[in-house]
């Protein structure tokens, strides 16, 4: 009965979403608050219905009800409880219900919002209802997770072992909160085009939704990168996998949207461009859903290999995005151009920031889709990998990073470039010194590492310079500095954290990529240690361990300095999962300050004298901690900015005034 209850709740949510769209649209067109009130109630009820369906699905996984096809295909009685719960969103069908849960939840929150003008809120509620209805219809008619299986198997097939990991248990909900959260700026942009109103009040309402979605996306992408780093055993954290790119594209568009919305809010300029980015960001999210679920990509991240359902997702993308961009093409010329500004101004730096982010997103999109389009057109198979992205994406982001610290120091409308450069001279000098020092400590072959260190240091020091200028740290009495520090808006603190986080990430990424050391070897227990960088690794023992639902060869390693100091023991495993017949790797990680020592246990093979030996790869990954600390600071900055009262009440105040 639980499965039938879930299916009924999902169908009811679809009916309520249709009611939401129709009632809100009619209410907006006819100026009838009664109808829009009914639409808001339908939005809340739809979210509740999807929550009931999702709770029913989790219950089916927890109790291992193998009479449900989705549970039988993705669960097993031997799985720990955490992964039985996570199995509810570990498949195409279950993850789609999670998508609908997040989307209807955001839609209900939007419907409850107060402060927007009547027409804008009503049309946005109608658009959100249409989006809800399309994805709920897709779930109900083609991807229901509640389909019964007769006869029911005694045991399930279990979830993909790669997904049985704590990071992957929370990664999809956070990623979807970002993906689907961008549907609200999309709906607000459509509503603004219908009403013909894109003004500072509208931009101020869009900003918190965009900021929340961007923050969730940042955390979700970082968790995915960290999972790939320690779970897949490849020694890296980002591989330009097409599915990784599918989540990165909306992140880039959302970052551009945040900066563009600031210009629209403060100066009334870039209104059309801000609307375009709001439409583009969620379109990239829907494109990502299509790529992950259609079967057009082969990836460890992909959910499904089903071209038929993929075509339906492509149709949803075409209808939603096509209609929105057609409306944009029709209405954008009528939008007011907004305030003018000089080539040297804060607006100008934000425009440059947007151009570089948009160009970077275009290069990622081209590198992701070109192999697919070429194969569909000619049958020729090619691979676009890191060399392409390093040559196209990296210079664009480096240019964006170079102008980032100057923007907040420039005045609106017309700025003093020489004055800003004067204030940034210490940051520039120290960044240059850091780059020269790193070049002296490494070699000329690692010149790009020195350039990267200069850019990362420039971002951090330039951002701190802007903070010092705000509070007048060295130019005012201590009491005045303290007063200014306490009075600094949370949005300013959030911006500072986010920009510093970007600098920290740049430092970690360039140093880890350029100076990492990898040493492959074949070891037996008791063999002499193998040297890598300034470290050495010894295989002490290999033993068989039994997990809840797997068997593993566990290698015990000692990692120490070349002189034998600082010895620590780590374990790495090679796991076999009987339920699925798959083998996975669990790396051994030793955190040494900012660095990681990283050991992978490979296949068993015959040693030189016939004794058992194992393939072992040891890595020294310098400053790898910063790769994940940087995005954490960026997301924290976004969340701190969300607590700024100006983002929550300013629209209402402006409307009242």
Features:
5-stranded antiparallel beta sheet, disordered C terminus, 9 strands, alpha+beta, 11% strand, 657 residues, 4-stranded antiparallel beta sheet
Describe this structure in words.
This protein has helices at 2-30, 33-62, 69-74, 81-86, 92-112, 118-142, 166-181, 183-195, 200-231, 242-267, 271-293, 307-331, 346-378, 386-403, 417-423, 425-441, 447-471, 478-487, 490-515, 624-642, 645-656; strands at 517-523, 530-532, 535-546, 551-561, 568-577, 582-586, 588-592, 595-606, 612-621. It is α+β, with helices and mostly antiparallel strands and 657 residues long. Among the domains are: 1-164, no CATH class; 404-515, no CATH class; 517-621. The model is unreliable at 649-657 (pLDDT under 50). The strands form 2 sheets. A 5-stranded antiparallel sheet has the order 2-3-4-5-6, with no helix packed on it. The chain has a 4-stranded antiparallel sheet with strand order 1-9-8-7. It starts with a helix and ends with a helix. The protein contains 21 helices and 9 strands. 50% of the residues are buried.
